[in-house]
Each structure stands twice: as structure tokens, then as C-alpha cells.
Write a structure and sequence with these properties.
single chain; about 140 residues; alpha+beta; Immunoglobulin-like; 3-stranded antiparallel sheet; 1 helix; DUF4307; transmembrane helix; membrane; transmembrane; DUF4307 domain-containing protein
Length: about 140
């Protein structure tokens, strides 16, 4: 018959002293370590987000299509406006698509503003391999 102690809750197993090693206290946690790991993870995610934003999401280089005209079997003329840093320059990628969505032409256009200005309006002809349905500006990025 095993011995029970009055201080042990009913249903808790009783082990002979020294036989099974040291027992851990139930519910012992390390909240400082967990908080530190969460803080390091959030900092790393913030750095990655900032790097991706500066690489792909620069709001200083924004293009808006004004109109696309002059559609023939071999070209489309795209008029667009680019917002740049004052006196800056950019390279914009234009694309022409057919009615089924397939790309039928593309062109890279170098855009430069005059000193002190932030906006420039550009008209560029995009050569195509088939009749285009739409002309669009995919993106503008800082000039190399």
C-alpha cells in the first residue's frame, strides 16, 4: 500500500523520492523569452517590409494613362502623365494588349522632368505585332 500525504491533491501521482529525478513545477513558463522572440520577429518583418516598399512601392514614381489612340494593326499611341521627384528621371514600361488579353507589344520610355517640376506628360507610340485593344503603363521606376 502506498503512502499518501495530506498536502497532495487527490488524483496526483506520488513518486518515491529520488527515484525518477527532479520533477518540473507545473505551469513554469518563460514570458520574457517569448516576448523577446516576438519583438525580434516583428522587427525583422518591419525591416523586410521597409526594404520591399522602397524597392517596389515608391510613390514618387507614379504614372497615369490619359488616353490611348491611333490604334492600327501595327501600333498604338499612349498618352500618359508621370509624377516624379522634382527634376528627376524615370524609365516607364508601356504595354499593348489584344482583345483576348495577350501582350502584342511593349516599349520602355525614358522620362525626364524639367528642374523644379514634378509632372510630365508624354506621348509614345508602341509598336505591335497584332491589332491592339488597349495601351497601358505597367510601371515607372527610377532611371538607371
Amino acid at each position: 500500500m502506498s503512502e499518501t500525504h495530506a498536502t497532495i491533491a487527490p488524483g496526483t501521482p506520488v513518486f518515491p523520492p529520488g527515484r525518477y529525478g527532479r520533477r518540473r513545477e507545473p505551469g513554469r513558463r518563460r514570458p520574457v523569452l517569448r516576448a523577446l522572440l516576438v519583438a525580434v520577429l516583428l522587427a525583422a518583418m518591419g525591416l523586410v517590409a521597409a526594404r520591399l516598399y522602397t524597392q517596389y512601392g515608391d510613390p514618387d514614381y507614379q504614372a497615369d494613362v490619359i488616353t490611348y489612340t491611333g490604334i492600327t494593326d501595327s501600333r498604338v499611341v499612349v498618352d500618359f502623365r508621370v509624377t516624379l521627384p522634382p527634376g528627376g528621371s524615370a524609365t516607364c514600361l508601356l504595354r499593348a494588349r489584344a482583345h483576348d488579353g495577350a501582350e502584342v507589344g511593349h516599349a520602355e520610355v525614358a522620362v525626364t522632368t524639367r528642374p523644379g517640376e514634378r509632372h510630365v506628360t508624354v506621348r509614345h507610340e508602341v509598336p505591335t505585332t497584332a491589332r491592339p485593344f488597349i495601351g497601358e503603363v505597367l510601371r515607372c521606376r527610377p532611371a538607371d
